[in-house]
Amino acid sequence: MADNPTEGILEQLRLGVAKFELVSSPVASISNPNSQTFPTAFHRDSNNLFFARIGPPLGGGSPAMKKVERYSVQRVTGDGRCLFRALVKGMALNKGITLNSRDEREDAAFPLFFTNADDLRMAVKEVICDSGSERRQYEEALIAITIDESLKRYCQRIGRSDFWGGESELLVSTC
């Protein structure tokens, strides 16, 4: 391969051992993980940015690099609802929607899923506290709840906006 990094990347693309890809968040190029440069932004429209980069070698890559490709760190507002905020933000990202801090707090116009932390928290409350038939589907969550406190006390606490989510709420939210 050539001494020039750009020529090396072009050679990898020509040989089919690397691929060019568009990504929705600015992640460093896999071809040069030590580089501090990020991919070039392309405007699809005024609300969505896409970034171009060189992807991992075709047909492989280490398990650690595959995780880097798939996951990213997202900041959420830490106000006691951060677990629910993180879940909502992740659901939005999976649908190609980026939520800002205001969108996390307020009902954005995305009716296909829970649009804010309180909606998701109240959906968990509804399943665990208000519906005996649905509650039975989440036995592991009930066990985790009742180890620490009574179900009645839990149902009072989860109704408050400063309720901290944990294992039980993850079990209900992700099933």
TrEMBL record:
Pfam family, one: OTU
Single GO biological process annotation from the record: ERAD pathway
Reaction(s) catalysed (UniProt annotation): Thiol-dependent hydrolysis of ester, thioester, amide, peptide and isopeptide bonds formed by the C-terminal Gly of ubiquitin (a 76-residue protein attached to proteins as an intracellular targeting signal)
InterPro entries per record: OTU_dom
Enzyme Commission number(s) from the entry: 3.4.19.12
Presence of the UniProt keyword Lipid metabolism in the record: no
Function of the molecule: Hydrolase that can remove conjugated ubiquitin from proteins and may therefore play an important regulatory role at the level of protein turnover by preventing degradation.
Protein name: Ubiquitin thioesterase OTU
